[in-house]
Amino acid sequence: MAVQVLSCGEARAKVELGRTHAAAWLASRAAGAPLEIGRADPPLQPARPSEPVLLDPRDVPKRKPGSLAGRQAMLHAVAHIELNAVDLHWDIIARFCDQPMPLGFYDDWVRAADDECRHFLMVCDCLHAMGSHYGALPAHAGMWRAAEDTVGDLQARLAVVPMVLEARGLDVTPGMIALFEKAGETGAVEALNVIYAEEVSHVAYGSKWFNWLCGREGSDPKEVFHDLVRRYFHGSLKPPFNEEKRADAGLPPDFYWPLVEERE
Ligand SMILES: [Fe+2]
Ligand SMILES: [Fe+2]
């Protein structure tokens, strides 16, 4: 089911399929008859629509954040992040199913994947209300990099995707909400507030299962986190951090601060 979502190239069909499959998994769990985990062979790159055109981030035109075009561009970038997140969460489900994990691992990522499908749809609705749509502008080409880099290592995937990239979302979303509030775009403010609240749980799922894996092998989570982020993450960790929401998600300061200082 996860591979079907990853292999679907049409954005709306992808997220609708994702929502249907998520509901089927959660219903099977609620009924006490979980669907079989099975084995999967997910594609290295998920299928994506022919639009938006994907560009190197340096070539994506910058627009003034105070203008309508700027706000459309910002929401378009959020829609792109959400669609990428849909694939990231279904990929973690399909990619590592050869490793024995408790069923709760799948519950968490199926819920997160379903959230991402809803986030994408909400942001698309806002884009329409603002006279644009997903695909109208070029988008960032490098979003799948973290998934490819961590294709063979579940702990590295958890460290880099939820615990670094999605945690970064918690840092930057309040500023974005303030910008749409100032412009009186209440639809976008509502959507971003839902995303902001729900993304905390995705970071929390990341740190929960990262810590669980460390506990299973008897290793020190902080040491392993630092080692894996240094090896697999090619960006930089930039303050200011949202210390409060990161704490809610089970990410203590001694996980992320040491990685900033050494990269400055
Ligand atoms: Fe999201
Ligand atoms: Fe997420």
Automatic annotation (TrEMBL):
InterPro entries: DUF455, Ferritin-like_SF, UCP012318. It holds the Pfam family DUF455. CDD domains: Ferritin_like. Residues 37-66 are annotated as: Disordered. This is DUF455 family protein. It comes from Stagnihabitans tardus.
